[in-house]
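Troubleshooting log. The previous structure file for this entry was overwritten by mistake, so regenerating from the original sequence record. Sequence copied from the archived sheet and checked twice against the printout by T.R.
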Amino acid sequence: MSKQWKITAANACLQVYTRFGGSVKDKASFHPGLTFNRIVIFSTTALGDLMFNTPAIRAVRERYPTAHITLISSYKNKQLVAESRFFNDVIYWDHKAKDMLSVIHQLRKHKPELAIILHSKSPYDVIVAITAGCHYVFKDAYGNKATGMEPWLSGVSRSTGGHLIQRKLDLVAQLGCRTDNTEMFIPIEFPPVNKTSGKTLIGFQMGASETLRCWPVERFTHLAKLLLAHSPHNQIELIGTPKELAIEKAFMAGLTAAEQQRVVSHMGKTTLPQLLAVMSNMQVLVTGDTGPLHLAIALKTPTVSLFVTANPQHTGPYQNSELHQVMYVPTDTIQLSAAQRRQPLSIITEHQVFDKVAAALQRG
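Regenerated output below.
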């Protein structure tokens, strides 16, 4: 079914549903002074998206300190939200249509009055919110694209060319929430791990969701050689998922036996809380535009980040600018060869990144 047909069908179904029942109220009846006791927040996409949403989530909790807040989250973020003090309950959903009835059934038990859709898939998210009994629905209009579900929305936020975090805050500002705290935060507590004394821990996140967004592994290998030769105290810490183990193998193959002894790989070996503990001990993390970058920013771990498909003005570091250095390859304005277009970040050399890492270590 095409997207337009889905939207048409969704609107038709909701019109029938609300004609004979439902609790949705006229958007004109909303005002920021209203109090809500039961709220549902939707954040069902990637790890980085969840992190971008945390300032808005905090603002909602501060605005409604006694409200029962249910989070609808993706399964992949379960370890980051299941035990969070910011939510009274969590429902897991990967925004698939076949699971909607189950989600609606679970959500109805909480009798939500207000839905705040920070990042999810339309029109399924709006259908779930309305049929679960929400009186008002607020949604972030990602990319300023019309959702086709506007008649059911009491409020939307749209991009003004700034950061995603600010846009989410602009959405909840319509509820009377404060928007002055733009810092991301880690939603859960995690046990610390002891840091090896005398070691300078330099993290590498080499993988990303697509090859296009990766800095070539040979560049990481050459950077490691430079860093290990620069100081006997430097130690490389690798992080990543089990799916990225082939990258780890290629990286290690380019090092000497002596250099390999100064590399610790956590790739595919940690839970998310354990990963947070590892990252919190790093002096600096070198990473592409991927989820761990945003975890590091929230942890206030210094970063050197490499961007290519996304504009860092929209999705890069938005806090503690003194801790974060961004290297950006805008493919629409730079002349690249066919080979370079497959991995545009390849035009960034290991020496350029080394200088950024050295600067971060010097500040630290």
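The two ends are 54 Å apart (CA to CA). Archived copy saved in two places this time.
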